[in-house]
């Protein structure tokens, strides 16, 4: 779908000034940067339409997506955080009511709880392997992209058991600090330090301790069994650190 094709059916860009078929939008306010996902090769777009992700010189950020009119019904049927601001032609008979229900904390089943624990403890050895081999970036990648994500998932479930599962703590858990005790929040933040081998070992061990505590508390409140992965992987981690960890850190 080309920008010109979209323009034939949607005139939304008129609020920014002139629009030309090659995808450039003239804007008197000026832009600091523009991205058009549908016009990229390295990061291809995942949704329909033609998008403009814009940051203006007055520091206003705006993401605009143009869609053909024949896609309107499907778009509004998606529900979620969609609000109809203007419908001059009266095309939308039943405007959706915005809701963030799709983003509420998910109530975990017993299987989901076990899966989270399994993923956390199954990935810890990858971090350990990276540390013992002096492969810092490998260890950091597995820590941040898997271990930490399961830690945050479990923490969100604990919040749900305390406050209910009828609200959202934000994208990337950005409001987590509003719903956990200050002491726990500070312990979580301490796991963010990864600028040296020693710091990463300490962060991993703190994260393991925190996950053990939070998952145990969550399991008790939900009436689920706490799986045996913890004890075995904690022992493995200690053995590997004692055998290889110190020498790998000294090589940095």
Would you write up a description of this structure?
By secondary structure, this protein is mainly α. It folds into two domains: 3-99, no CATH class; 103-250, Nucleotidyltransferases  domain 2 (Four Helix Bundle (Hemerythrin (Met), subunit A)). The chain is built from seven helices and three strands. It has helices spanning 3-9, 72-77, 110-132, 136-163, 182-190, 197-222, 229-250; strands at 31-35, 50-56, 61-66. The chain has a three-stranded antiparallel sheet. Strand 2 and strand 3 form a beta hairpin. Helix 3 (110-132) packs antiparallel against helix 6 (197-222) and helix 4 runs parallel beside helix 6 (197-222). The protein is globular and about 70 Å long. The model is unreliable at 1-26 (pLDDT under 50).
């Amino acid at each position: 779908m080309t920008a010109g094709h979209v323009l034939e059916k949607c005139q939304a860009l008129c609020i920014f000034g002139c629009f030309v078929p090659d995808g450039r939008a003239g804007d008197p306010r000026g832009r600091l940067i523009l991205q058009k996902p549908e016009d990229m090769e390295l990061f291809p777009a995942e949704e329909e339409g033609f998008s403009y992700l814009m940051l203006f010189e007055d520091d206003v950020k705006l993401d605009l997506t143009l869609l053909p009119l024949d896609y309107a019904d499907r778009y509004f049927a998606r529900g979620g955080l969609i609000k109809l601001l203007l419908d001059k032609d009266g095309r939308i008979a039943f405007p959706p009511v915005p809701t963030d229900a799709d983003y509420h904390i998910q109530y975990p089943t017993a299987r989901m709880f076990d899966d989270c624990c399994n993923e956390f403890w199954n990935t810890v050895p990858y971090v350990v392997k990276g540390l013992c081999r002096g492969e810092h970036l490998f260890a950091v990648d597995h820590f941040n992209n898997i271990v930490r994500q399961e830690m945050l998932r479990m923490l969100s479930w604990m919040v749900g058991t305390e406050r209910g599962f009828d609200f959202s703590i934000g994208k990337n858990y950005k409001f987590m600090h509003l719903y956990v005790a200050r002491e726990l929040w500070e312990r979580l933040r301490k796991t963010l330090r990864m600028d040296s081998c020693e710091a990463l070992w300490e962060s991993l061990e703190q994260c393991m301790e925190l996950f053990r505590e939070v998952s145990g508390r969550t399991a008790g409140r939900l009436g689920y069994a706490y799986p045996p992965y913890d004890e075995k992987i904690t022992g493995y981690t200690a053995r590997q650190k004692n055998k290889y960890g110190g020498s790998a850190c000294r090589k940095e």
